[in-house]
Amino acid sequence: MRILLMAALFAALPLGATVAALAPAQAAPVGSSWVEGTLVHISTSNVKIKDDKTGKEVSFLLVPHFDQVFSGDGKTTYQMKSLKSGQLVKVFYDQKLLGARHADRILVLNRSQAAVKQQKG
Fold first, then answer.
1. pLDDT tens-digit profile of 1-11?
2. Where in the sequence is the signal peptide annotated (predicted)?
């Protein structure tokens, strides 16, 4: 009986190692990356931001029922329909290994907040 148990254990070891090797890497915490810029495009499935510092446009996917739109101070919530092209926004996102960027939270900023922040920094 002991030999049978040892044989089963040794047979299961390669399977366990294979599953551990195929498991996805630990994802970065929500909001670990962000970009601030002008909202260029908004739809039900994605948003596109033009980074004001680099001039590059960056796209983000929105999951169904995305509702994480807040004021710059994070205290007031907005509906998605209130987002318009040309607004200054800050998008917190995550990106799985070599995958698409997914927006986690969008902050609606105003130009005066951005000017004050640039003068301080």
1. 667 656 665 66
2. 1-27
